[in-house]
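Researcher: We plan to redesign the surface later, but first we want a full-length starting point. Tokens attached.
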């Protein structure tokens, strides 16, 4: 009976594995020990046992605190001690190692060896093998970069080294690739502005967790932040508002607010994002959310409307009535702005053109808008669709693809097929909107408001920074859907609307993390993510690493979970 006990334990573990888990770990064999921690709340699994002579008495492996969870991990015995960081890698990746780990020495006989090789894991996949060296192999530099990010999370300072120059890392073999292509965050810089250094700080954190799309919301009612040489008033007038809302009241703070980016600052952010293999998706929101543009050039609005007309950069939040006129002048304006965006964001295949929350109230009282609707034989709500179609076709002529919020599906019937629909209206139904997009040949990115809006409260005590409303805890983010009917889902994205993210980069960090970590794991691991309990254990361990200041981490990714209280309440 004693001799059979290890065999029985192994069989029991195999039959209690969660769905998909055995496939994930199918490469575990021989005398090697298995990796990491139990999956979700499924109880003991094969990962908690070591395949050695005595499964009963073997010590438990310390879990690897890697976020997002890799696709396949094979634990080996012991750790590799690294006396100094020596590197043999492509030049761009040497800089990555220096930036994320520390000073390096280039050597052919290096401890860190990064090799371009087709490992059959796609453009972003990689293989990491730690034995007597740290070897990363991938088909592209992007894949090698992800491997370095994994190493960065695994490295630990040698506690016995008084000089602080020695490192150690568990011996492992990891094969890893993302489930979804688009893994992103959106940052609204109109309601409250974030300086280039703040944006780069967010990008760097995103890269650590293998996020690869940054959606930059540059224009809205409360301020225009993007320079267009042909329309200087967009910055001279449109970037300035007289005051901002005071908390959640109808009052304002009577404090002028005036911020914008220069072309050089935008180019600097784009260059930094490229070094992190992050694609920047700029947004010019039209034809609604255009009050700042109309305040800059009133002729772009419905100035013949009988509705109250006093265009100024908005000093209140919410969906406001000012919309661009459906006139030829306004259409040409949108084309000019999009051409400038395409020029400045020259490597971005996507440009977001908004299309959400468009009011028809001014159009309904504008003789000019009513005449355009009559001539084109469309209802007022479809004036929005006409403008979006003209804008997206212009982008198509510039060899770019438009991105629209899913509201556009209600009004725009003839968007180019390359147009991507970003579904935020979870209350309408992800499957319903996904099916509608699929029927018209559009891929989708999921940005569901109930799961991925990070401007909402994340703790029920509301103890730290302000929020717009509601409650979106870490566990709900981890359950973000990744399907939408029959649609082809490119990926998922978290939204950082900034109406109430008004206290700078610490406030931004608090709202973005650790919820962004959960979203990153959902996007990377997809249906095979290990489960929230497992994720939370790894996040807790990462929190301890940050608190102990192990390594050269200059980003505080867990400001929302201070060391003294861990992850309680999330």
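Model: Full-length starting sequence:
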């Amino acid at each position: 009976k004693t001799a059979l006990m290890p065999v029985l334990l192994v069989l029991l573990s195999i039959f209690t594995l969660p769905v998909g888990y055995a496939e994930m770990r199918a490469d575990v064999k021989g005398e090697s020990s298995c990796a990491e921690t139990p999956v979700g709340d499924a109880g003991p699994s094969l990962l908690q046992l070591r395949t050695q002579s005595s499964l009963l008495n073997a010590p438990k492996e310390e879990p690897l605190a890697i976020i997002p969870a890799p696709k396949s991990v094979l634990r080996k015995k012991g750790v590799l001690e690294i006396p100094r960081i020596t590197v043999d890698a492509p030049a761009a990746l040497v800089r990555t190692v220096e930036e994320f780990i520390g000073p390096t020495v280039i050597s052919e006989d290096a401890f860190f060896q990064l090799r371009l090789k087709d490992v059959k894991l796609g453009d972003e996949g990689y293989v990491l093998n730690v034995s007597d060296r740290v070897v990363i192999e991938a088909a592209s530099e992007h894949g090698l970069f992800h491997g370095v990010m994994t190493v960065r999370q695994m490295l630990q300072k040698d506690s016995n080294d008084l000089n602080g120059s020695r490192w150690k890392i568990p011996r492992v073999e990891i094969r890893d690739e993302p489930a979804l292509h688009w893994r992103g965050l959106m940052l609204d810089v109109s309601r409250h502005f974030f300086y280039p250094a703040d944006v780069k700080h967010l990008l760097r954190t995103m890269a650590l967790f293998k996020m690869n799309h940054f959606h930059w919301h540059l224009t809205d009612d409360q301020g225009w932040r993007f320079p267009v040489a042909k329309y200087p008033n967009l910055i001279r007038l449109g970037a300035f508002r007289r005051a901002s809302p005071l908390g959640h009241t109808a009052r304002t703070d009577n404090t002028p607010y005036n911020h914008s980016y220069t072309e050089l600052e935008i180019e600097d952010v784009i260059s930094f994002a490229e070094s992190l293999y992050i694609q920047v998706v700029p947004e010019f929101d039209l034809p609604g959310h255009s009050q700042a543009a109309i305040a800059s050039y009133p002729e772009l609005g419905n100035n013949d409307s009988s509705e109250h007309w006093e265009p100024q950069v908005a000093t209140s939040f919410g969906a406001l009535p000012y919309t661009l006129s459906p006139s030829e002048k306004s259409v040409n304006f949108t084309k000019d702005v999009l051409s400038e965006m395409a020029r400045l964001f020259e490597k971005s295949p996507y440009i977001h053109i908004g299309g959400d929350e468009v009011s028809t109230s001014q159009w309904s009282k504008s003789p000019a808008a009513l005449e355009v609707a009559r001539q084109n034989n469309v209802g007022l709500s479809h004036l929005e669709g006409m403008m979006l179609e003209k804008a997206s076709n212009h982008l198509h002529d510039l060899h770019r693809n438009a991105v629209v919020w899913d509201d556009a599906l209600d009004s725009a019937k003839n968007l180019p097929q390359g147009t991507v629909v970003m579904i935020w209206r979870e209350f309408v139904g992800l499957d319903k909107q996904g099916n509608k997009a699929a029927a018209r040949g559009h891929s989708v990115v999921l940005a569901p408001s109930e799961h991925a809006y990070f401007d909402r409260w994340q703790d029920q005590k509301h103890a730290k920074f302000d929020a717009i409303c509601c409650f979106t805890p870490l566990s709900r983010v981890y359950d973000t859907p990744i399907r939408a009917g029959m649609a082809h889902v490119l990926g998922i994205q978290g939204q950082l609307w900034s109406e109430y993210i008004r206290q700078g980069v610490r406030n931004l960090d608090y709202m973005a993390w650790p919820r962004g970590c959960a979203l990153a794991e959902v996007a990377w691991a997809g249906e095979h993510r290990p489960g929230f309990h497992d994720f939370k254990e790894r996040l807790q361990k990462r929190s301890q690493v940050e608190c102990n200041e192990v390594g050269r981490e200059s980003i505080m990714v867990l400001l929302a979970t201070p060391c003294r209280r861990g992850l309680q309440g999330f």
